[in-house]
Design goal:
single chain, alpha/beta, Rossmann fold, 2 domains, two-stranded antiparallel sheet, 9 strands, 34% helix, globular
């Protein structure tokens, strides 16, 4: 099989990452625990806590959810690295720190009902499910929606409800939501989602086209309080928003 220079570079990068991750896990795994348990602890210590995430619920969820179950089998050993990974259909699973940051900034309560745009492989929904009452998540790519639903069910995340559709439209019959998380980048804030956000609710989104800023909104009456958090890079939002 002919490999382009770009493909060779990508494979070399993956090989280096595998060696680095396994070496790190081996170094810290002094009591012969499963590699993934050690890898999650290293991930949380060096990527999550080290960057200022302090929410105990978020940290506990990141330690519990087996991230390697949410990536292609060939990439399992890279699942706990400090980077996003491809999951097929030109989509990605977000960098662990970004997942933790977005989750923490929503200030979730155990009674909250959350709506997610962009299910992907289901990892973000799994994290959320350990922190709130119900998670409703929409994925526009049918193959990803189907595989995520099956995966979440197989792994026992019973309070996550997956639908294939356009997240721009939300999930009106289940609204209002205490929090909304958008894990793809729209060029502007989708009005239907603002309408489905509960009073006092929080919405977090990577907003923008080529240049994106992670932004959080809090709804008070007809007013949206806005705070820009950090520059980020997400896959673009697809569907109606593109028209």
């Amino acid at each position: 099989m002919h490999l382009t220079k770009c493909r060779l570079s990508f494979l070399l990068s993956l090989t280096i990452l595998v060696i680095a991750v396994e070496g790190c896990a081996a170094k810290d795994n002094r009591d012969n625990r499963p590699w993934d348990v050690v890898a999650r602890e290293v991930m949380v210590d060096r990527q999550i806590k080290a960057r200022g995430i302090t929410d105990k619920g978020v940290i506990a969820a990141m330690l519990k959810v087996e991230r390697h179950r949410f990536v292609p089998s060939a990439l399992e050993r890279l699942a706990y690295g400090d980077h996003p990974l491809p999951i097929g259909e030109e989509q990605t699973i977000s960098q662990p720190y970004i997942v933790a940051l977005m989750t923490e900034r929503l200030k979730l309560k155990s009674t909250d009902r959350v709506f997610e745009v962009g299910t992907g492989s289901g990892y973000q929904a799994a994290i959320l499910s350990l922190l709130v009452s119900e998670v409703y998540t929409v994925e526009i790519i049918e193959s990803l929606a189907d595989s995520a639903a099956a995966r979440l069910d197989r792994l026992g995340f019973r309070n996550v409800y997956v639908r294939c559709g356009d997240g721009f439209l939300g999930w009106p019959e289940k609204a209002p939501f205490d929090a909304i998380i958008i894990t793809c980048a729209p060029p502007k804030l989708p009005d239907p989602l603002v309408a489905q956000l509960a009073e006092g609710g929080r919405l977090i989104v990577p907003l923008g086209d080529d240049f994106q800023v992670l932004t959080i909104y809090e709804k008070t009456g007809d007013v949206l309080k806005k705070e820009e958090i950090a520059p980020v890079l997400f896959v673009p939002m697809k569907g109606i928003i593109e028209q």
